[in-house]
Model the fold of this input.
Amino acid sequence: MITMPRPSKSEKWAIPAIIVGHLTTLKHFMRNILGRRGIPNKGIATIEYPDERRQYSDRFRGRHWLRTREDGSVACVACYMCSTNCPAQCIRIVASEDENLSQEKYPVVFEIDLLRCVYCGYCVDACPCNVIYMTRDDELATMTREESIITLKELTEEPKSERIKGDIMGYRPWYGERPVWKDDIDRMKY
Done:
């Protein structure tokens, strides 16, 4: 006569655990399906993009932006502090001397590879002239690698996203008790 071995404690609890797991999955599935059909449910984790947008912090680090002077020229003095301080080495600057001697150097090429960027904000903190900022623009999708490298012309344009037209500033460096705001940038004269 063949006797079946007695199940161990873990084997006794395996079937009820699988059933409980499946019931939990079914409960969440039904809650999400019913929540989408007009029954309000605050526990749904899915955001219906692009109809709904996630609310980010005011200090969100998004697309980069370079400040310009009143005459339209870039306020950057090509000191290479941002590219030196970047841990991902995604900033490329080529400098040239200014013929008008209004400043010693200016960037001829200023490129940031957004696919390599880790959005740490070190470039913003390292800039001694408060020229580079990170905006609240979170729409950074591109189709090719070449589109993800933003140039000097694109860096000086304000973000095109309609929902952040009012306050484009995201991550700001802290100096003392309050961050640098857009009003402070407007007051800075060179």
